[in-house]
Design a protein that fits this description.
The chain is an alpha+beta fold. Helices cover about 50% and strands about 15% of the residues. The protein is built from 24 helices and 25 strands. The strands form 6 sheets. Strands 3, 4, 5, 6, 7 and 8 form a 6-stranded antiparallel sheet that branches. The protein has a 5-stranded antiparallel sheet with strand order 10-9-13-12-11, sandwiched between helices. Strands 15-14-18-17-16 form a 5-stranded antiparallel sheet, sandwiched between helices. The longest helix has about 80 residues, at about 475-550. The protein starts with a strand and ends in an 11-residue tail after the last helix.
């Protein structure tokens, strides 16, 4: 159960609330520690406090107020709500008193009570901005223990936090953002203020009875305005920066145009002076007062030079100047402009900054022109002070204005240097990088001279090798930016607080209505849940019945192979009783066990499933059972393998059928080869013995062979009934069956080999009887009979009543079929008797060679069999 002490949530919550409480407590304790250390330092008069500097000094009254607020909101201190409220009120009063001292003109001398007497009270006063923030934070701490006022406490704390965050931003940007009446706000005071505000916000939020949903609402109401504020700040910075770039560009353009006009005026004046003395000697010029007066008039009209002088290019001595007659005897042969013109430079030359000797005096630089025809150099002396008026274009004393030659020689520097003579810009400095093209106009970079960060713009002065450079202090840009975003931020904060309050009331009303709806919804959900559970139970029962009634083997086992469940079909298949434990290795047939354990189960563990044919063993009868086994892994709710599930189907009948088909295919192959051999023999014999009537005889014999094949195919190559075989070979004499042709004997079946040979023999005998024997007359008869005497089978063909017969003088294929082929096929004996009464053909052989095995077992002796001996 959540405990509340003094309006603050105790420390017995879990993450993430526990983390928030820890952060709030750490922030409160840190702020209190900073205030305590600072206050003790002031009370004890430690010199360290005074030597920290204005950025780090926290004023004594500020330290006391921070300590009181931290004590009021720290939950580890076992204080009652009234005491916490009292501490917050005292802190707020301290801030209020500081504001009264600042704006009311009263000196309450609060600081003198807490600091050494050697320091003035005014020097120890806190900033009015910090005083206002402490009033807000102290009031928030006072209201925090009151449950109904926690929203007000959080709102006040947020306001104080905005002040602290803005002050911190000012420190980071180097700008006095809040326009405080003191030079700066101490960083420890800013950090402590932000920590206190964060702690009040968290503690106040966790004290709410519905802090979870309310905290999300609180964050959403303040996060969206924060995003809007950030977007506005970004947009404002872009505008302010663009305006600053444009302003700096206008300034440098104005400066460059002014310098260009000065240079062009001086250049025109120098050309006029050189035209005045053109064609005259140096001595004539030096002695002519009118030349001096002309130069004086020109100098007065330009208003931009200190003096104009003429110098001999051979000696470097001044021969005329605009300040009087005669010219002073001054040697300028060491000046850079003289050396450049003497070396042949004829264009306008901008000289370096020099300290001029008397009677010129002062510090400045020169502009000179050279006339090769007369050997005279005209020089205008410009004073740096004449450019001081250009400092009016600067927006701040920290702005920089520079006029420099392309080689880095500085002509005008503002802010000025103590000694600018011969000063060159640093090669790696921002100004030289701008001139060299390494940096672009609008670059923001610190100056190499004073380290101040500025926005730089530059422009070349006309066609002269001189550049005007202007640096706008970045602090001014940031200050202009903050002047725009700080009011917007305060308005956004106020709007966020009002929106949060309205949203909270609306949320409470919505939650009340939703709670009423949820009660009825809960009853409906419970009923649906009960119904769903019943359906799930029914589905489970149906599945269990389906598995139990299935004809396939279904089982589950643990990962070690111990059976957990078996359906009825599985128990019947392996002969397992329900009372005994079982391992799958017990019912796997020995010939499949190694494959099952070494290959099949590892494949299931690796791939999650496997399927293969194998053999099971019936534990009761010991019979092997051909099966196809499909096994797969069952996973638990974490996705880890839990059990092995097996679905096995008995394929014994299918395997037997496959074996039978295989046997038939082999038999067909064997018999096809035999048939081709027989056909070949028939063909060879018929062609050799009866070449004239080959086609007719060959066709008849093939038809007899075909009749045998029909009987074999009709009986699936399993043997032929002897009576059917005889009638098939005598099919041409169907009308004589029962009258002149008699076929009788026990019901026996020839095997396929005997059926082919005997069938061909009967065909030959019937053919000869129809041509030469008993069936060639109207009175003859034929008897076909057979018998089984123990293991001896006998068959007899007897002709009666036909014409007298005699043994043939030559033997053809028919004789081979009747004698040799029949004999060889059954490994028996054939006797052919050409008696006067008719032909008698007798076949005797072991019954195992002629009859099917089943027939031999059924009959040991055929009943009423004729004597075929």
């Amino acid at each position: 159960m959540r405990k509340v002490q003094s309006g603050l949530v105790a420390q017995n919550g879990g993450p993430p609330l526990g983390v928030l409480r820890l952060i709030a407590s750490a922030a409160s304790a840190g702020a209190g520690l900073v205030g305590l250390v600072t206050l003790v330092g002031w009370l004890a008069g430690f010199p360290l406090i005074a030597n920290w500097g204005p950025v780090l000094i926290m004023k004594p009254v500020t330290a006391l107020a921070v300590l009181l607020i931290a004590a009021a909101i720290l939950p580890q201190l076992r204080l009652t709500p009234p005491w916490r409220t009292a501490l917050g009120v005292v802190a707020a009063l301290l801030g209020t008193c500081s504001l009264i001292q600042e704006f009311g003109g009263f000196d309450l001398r609060l600081e003198s009570w807490l600091a050494p007497g050697g320091m003035a009270s005014a020097d120890l006063r806190m900033s009015p901005v910090i005083a206002l923030a402490l009033v807000l934070a102290g009031t928030a701490a006072a209201l925090l223990p009151i449950p109904r006022l926690t929203d007000a406490a959080r709102f006040l704390a947020a306001g104080a936090g905005v002040i602290g965050a803005t002050a911190l931003l000012g420190h980071l940007l180097g700008v006095d953002v809040l326009y405080s009446f003191h030079p700066s706000i101490a960083l420890p005071a800013v950090a402590a203020l932000i920590a206190i505000c964060a702690a009040v916000l968290i503690h106040g939020q966790l004290s709410s009875p519905a802090h979870r949903g309310d905290f999300r609402l609180f964050l959403s109401q303040f996060f969206v305005p924060l995003v809007i504020f950030a977007l506005f700040a970004w947009w404002s910075w872009r505008n302010v920066e663009a305006d600053a770039r444009a302003s700096a560009e206008r300034t440098v353009a104005s400066f460059s145009e002014y310098v260009q006009r000065v240079f062009e005026i001086q250049e025109t004046a120098l050309e006029a002076v050189l035209d005045q003395v053109k064609g005259r000697s140096a001595a004539d010029i030096a002695a002519d007062r009118s030349v001096h007066e002309f130069m004086s008039q020109i100098d007065k009209h330009t208003h931009t030079s200190e003096a104009i002088s003429l110098v001999r290019s051979d000696t470097g001595r001044v021969i005329a100047w605009s300040r009087g007659f005669p010219a002073p005897d001054v040697d300028v042969s060491q000046r850079d402009f003289f050396k450049a013109h003497r070396a042949g430079y004829q264009s306008t030359y901008i000289g370096e900054v020099i300290r001029r000797a008397e009677p010129f005096g002062g510090i400045g630089f020169t502009i000179s022109r050279f006339d090769p025809a007369t050997g005279i150099v005209a020089v205008a002396h410009l004073s740096i002070e004449s450019f001081v008026q250009l400092s009016d274009v600067r927006a701040s004393p920290r702005d920089a204005l520079t006029l420099a030659r392309a080689d880095g020689m500085a002509l005008v520097l503002n802010p000025p240097l103590a000694d600018p003579v011969g000063f060159r810009l640093h090669e790696d400095g921002v100004t030289m990088r701008l001139i060299g093209g390494e940096f672009k106009a609008g670059t923001i970079a610190p100056s190499s001279m004073d380290g101040v960060e500025r926005l730089w713009q530059f422009r070349k002065v006309g066609h002269y090798p001189v550049y005007a450079i202007y640096g706008l202090d970045i602090v001014l840009i940031r200050a202009a930016w903050l002047r725009q975003i700080v009011p917007f931020g305060l308005v956004t904060l106020l709007a966020s607080g009002l929106t949060y309050r309205m949203s909270r009331r609306w949320q409470t009303a919505v939650e009340d209505r939703r709670r009423a709806q949820n009660e009825s919804e809960l009853a409906r959900v419970r009923a649906e849940r009960a119904e769903a559970l019943a359906r799930v139970e029914q589905a489970r029962d149906d599945l269990v019945q389906l598995i139990e009634r299935a004809n396939d083997f279904v089982s589950t086992a643990d990962l070690d192979g111990h059976i957990v469940y078996m359906n009825a079909a599985a128990k019947r298949m392996i002969g397992r009783g329900p009372e005994r434990d079982l391992h799958f290795s017990e019912y796997i047939a020995p010939e499949s066990l190694d494959y099952f354990t070494d290959t099949f189960i590892p494949a299931v563990r690796q791939h999650g499933h496997a399927s293969a044919e194998m053999k099971l063993r019936n534990l009761t009868s010991g019979e092997s059972i051909d099966v196809i086994c499909s096994t797969f892994l069952l996973l638990d709710w974490k996705g880890n393998p839990n059990q092995l599930a097996t679905v096995t189907r008995d394929i014994t009948d299918r395997k037997r059928h496959e074996e039978h088909l295989d046997l038939l295919m082999r038999e067909v192959n064997h018999r096809a080869k035999n048939m081709l051999t027989v056909v070949q023999a028939i063909s060879n014999q018929t062609a050799a013995r009866s070449p004239k009537d080959f086609l007719a005889r060959f066709t008849e014999r093939l038809q007899a062979l075909s009749a045998n094949q029909d009987l074999l195919v009709r009986n699936e190559w399993g043997g032929v009934d002897i009576a059917d075989l005889a009638r098939a070979q005598l099919a041409a004499f169907t009308d004589l069956m029962g009258s002149r042709i008699s076929v009788h004997g026990p019901k026996l079946r020839f095997n396929s080999v005997a059926a082919q040979a005997v069938g061909l023999a009967l065909h030959e005998l019937a053919t000869n009887a129809s041509k030469y024997g008993a069936l060639s007359t109207e009175t003859g008869s034929v008897e076909v009979c057979w018998r089984l005497d123990g293991n001896i089978f006998a068959m007899k063909w007897t002709e009666r009543g036909g014409p007298p017969v005699s043994a043939p003088t030559h033997r053809g294929f028919g004789s081979t079929v009747v004698n040799a082929m029949a004999k060889r096929s059954v490994d028996g004996e054939v006797h052919l008797d050409y008696a006067a009464s008719g032909v008698i053909w007798t076949l005797t052989c072991p019954s195992a060679n002629a009859l099917e095995a089943a027939e031999r077992g059924e009959l040991e002796r055929a009943p009423e069999s004729p004597d075929v001996s």
